[in-house]
Structure formats: structure tokens, C-alpha cells
Amino acid sequence: MEFEKIWNSVLSEMEIQVSHANFYTWLKSSKLLDKQEGGVFVVALPNNFSKEWVENKYYKNILAVLRNVDDSARKIEFVVQGNIFKGTTAGEKIKSPLETFSQTPFPEFKIDPVTNLNPKYTFKNFIVGSSNELAYAAAQAVVKDIGSKYNPLFIYGGVGLGKTHLIQGIGNEINTFYKGKVRVKYVFSEKFINDVVWAIKNRRMDDIKKKYRDIDVLIVDDIQFIGGKEKTEEEFFHTFNTLYGENKQIIISSDRPPQALPTLHERLRSRFEGGMIADVVYPDYEMRVAIIKTKLSEMGQTIPNTVIDIIAQKLTKNIREIEGILNKLIFIKEKKGIEITDSVLDEIISKNSQANKNISPNKIVKAVADFFEVSVIDLVGKSRKKEIVEPRQILMYLLREVLKMSYPFIGNKVGKRDHTTAIYSCEKINKEIIKNITLNQKINLIKDIIYKD
Ligand code: ADP
Ligand code: MG
């Protein structure tokens, strides 16, 4: 109890010192675990990524604040403890959907550390319609008959159409059905790439072989990132062959079909084509309505049918977007006590699309500056400070990616630099982002800030 009090004081002070986005992303989820001899405070963070980030960026700050609260503090030791969120009940989450929504950077809070599966993705809450029937049927078949008919199972389709939900659902279903006797591992392809790169660097290839081959079902999400990186692809191919040769099940998702994965090695592509391939496409109107109604009932909420109808008519291409709007509506209803009507919805939808249209270069500059906690003046100026280099490259990359600005414009906007500098920065980040998961996550978090209204 005392720990909790100490840490709450520290957090409330930190909340003032850092930006809102940073606080929620990095600090809110920390917890004081122990106070050891010599003034060592042990603090838990939910994953390695945040541990590294908090250590590098906030160590001094936090220690100073902690000393004000407890002057015996000399040192902080951060540890990773994936399940520090167990304390929050589902009920608390439902009360504040916008908060959970905006905190999606770390959905892995509840993730099972062995399988990497998030228990929230189940078959039960997966809605089936004409757009995903085949994929769902194949998924069910895989659960009943692991490693035989549908191997590998390859699911592809656009963003936000339920690929991750479905393939994680297979994993969770297998866990329940076989009571944990079948070893499942879910991996985001970038994590796999990272592991391989790390292993090569540290000459620990054997570790990785064991890690990935010691399982019965391997689920690889977003395989399109693997293509083009020879060592990783080679390793993936070996892992794949070994598992496949032992009749173990492989499940893969991708944003496009195997034949459209241009950089993928021919051998690997034909392997994929030898299994079961199913796509997920845009849901039709009836299905969108079903999805909205199910999500509402999961949250224990209702909104008028006319509002449901408008959402289903307007948001046609992305289920994640539908969820986002619902979360906002419920937030407004619960927190502000506003009844949801057609016009409230209209306002939210138009705000949302305006927010997307009205992204200005300055908004991006500000988001990057906020995120890295550097000054705008340094960021777009001539400063040669070391800590500005990466933020500035990311800024140029985002101006290009989000706003499709010309290189001369970007160069000029960011410190009156030459367009070749802009090209160099964009290309550097473009290349790096594929192999560096930390960078990729940072950029996604910044995008969250940019797209949030
Ligand atoms: P993808 O991996 O294809 O980008 P996700 O699986 O992450 O998409 O889905 C985006 C969001 O929409 C998730 O929160 C997911 O639970 C939800 N979702 C997608 N498809 C369905 C579906 N058929 N039924 C219920 N929820 C869905
Ligand atoms: Mg996905």
C-alpha cells in the first residue's frame, strides 16, 4: 500500500512534467514493486520497449521526483513485468473507452507471455459474413485438424479487416480446445525480423532456432514485412520448412496475396501457395450493422438504431474505424452525459474526416516535437544537437508520408536545408523502419498524436 502511495505521488508529478501523450504511453502503466536496501527502488514497466524508453528519457526526472517524495531514494531499477495490468478490471475499461482507444500503442498489456496471444481476440466475438466466410471456415478447420489439410493457412486483406483478430482467434481457440497441450506462438513479423537480426549480431542463432521450432502452431502476422531481407527470409524459410516437415501448423497473415509479395523468395512464395489461401474483404452493410451491435452489447451500451444505420452507411472500409467512432460516441455519452443523436454523430464523423484532411505541416512538427520533447525551434532549425537528429529525420519522413510534400518543400521547411537532405532522411527512415521495431513503434505513436483530434 505504501508503495502505491509513493508511486502515485511520483506519477502525479510526472504527469505535469511530460506531455499528455508521453505520460499515457510510457509512465501511466508503471508500478513501484519494491524498495530495497541502499535506496534502490524497483519499478515495473509492461514491456522491454517502454523500459528502454523510460530508462533513456526519464530516468533522471523520475529519480529527482522520487527523491522529493522519499529522500532515501538513490537509484531506480526498472524491470519488465508484462501482467502489471491484471489489477484493472474489465469494468473500469468499459467506463472509459476513449482512453483505452487512445492507448492502443500497448494493447499487449494482457498478452500471454508464452503464446503472445491477446485473449480479447476470440472466435466468439468475431462476426462472420460474406466478406470473411471462407477465411473463418478455414480458421475453424485448422483448429479441429491442426497441421494437416490447411497448412499453411494464409489470410490476406486490407487494413482493419480482422486479420489479426482471426489468426489470434485461432491461437486462443486452440489453447482452449486443447487445454494448453498444443504449443502456440504468435509473432508479429517485425518481431521475428528483430529476433533474427539480434541473433545474427550476437551469434546466438541456436537460441532462435529453438525458440521458434519448439512449437506446434506458429502464427506470423503481417508477413509482408519479411520480404526482401535475405537473412531473415532464409531463417524464416528454414523454420517454416522444419515445422512444416513435422506436420506442425503455420498460419500467416499479409496485406496482399502471396503472388503480390514482390520481394519474397520464389521458394517461400510457392510454399504459401501450396496451402490454403483465403482473403478478407470489406464487410457489407448487414455485417457492418452486426458488428456495431455486437460491439455495443460487449460494452453494455445502446445507441439509437438510426445512429447505427448512419455509421454503417458511412464507414465502409475499415472495422477498426467503426470501433473508433463507437468508442468516441460512448465516451461522450458516458463522460459528458450527452444523448447520442444523428447530429452528434454527424459532428463526430465530420470532425474525424476534417481532422484527417486538415493535417498541416505544423501539426506534424508539433507532434514530433511533443513526442520527443524537444523544442520546435530546435527541430526545424539549424541545431546540430545530437538528440535532434533522429526526430528531425522522422519529421521529414512524416511530412513526406502523411502530406506527400515535395522534397524541396520539406528541406526548406526543416531548417532551410537542401532537397537532397530531405531525400536522404526519408529514405533512411524508410529503410530503417522495416528492420527497427522501436523506430516503427515510435512513428506509429506519433501518427496517433497526429490523427487524434
Ligand atoms: P487487421 O489485422 O486486418 O488490420 P484487426 O484484426 O486488427 O485488422 O481488426 C481491427 C479491429 O476490428 C479489431 O479491434 C478487431 O477486433 C475488429 N474486427 C475486425 N474484424 C472483425 C469481425 N469480423 N468481427 C468483430 N470484430 C472485428
Ligand atoms: Mg493486423
Automatic annotation (TrEMBL):
- Residues noted as binding ATP in the record, renumbered to the chain: 160, 162-164
Where does the Chromosomal replication initiator DnaA C-terminal domain lie?
360-429
GO biological process assignments: DNA replication initiation; regulation of DNA replication
Question: Which segments carry the region annotation Domain IV, binds dsDNA?
Answer: 334-453
- An example of a Pfam family matching this protein is Bac_DnaA
Keywords recorded for this protein, A-Z: ATP-binding, Cytoplasm, DNA replication, DNA-binding, Lipid-binding, Nucleotide-binding
Domains: what does the record tell us?
A: Domain I is involved in oligomerization and binding regulators, domain II is flexibile and of varying length in different bacteria, domain III forms the AAA+ region, while domain IV binds dsDNA.
Protein name as it appears in the record: Chromosomal replication initiator protein DnaA
What taxonomic lineage is listed for the species of origin? Bacteria, Candidatus Liptoniibacteriota
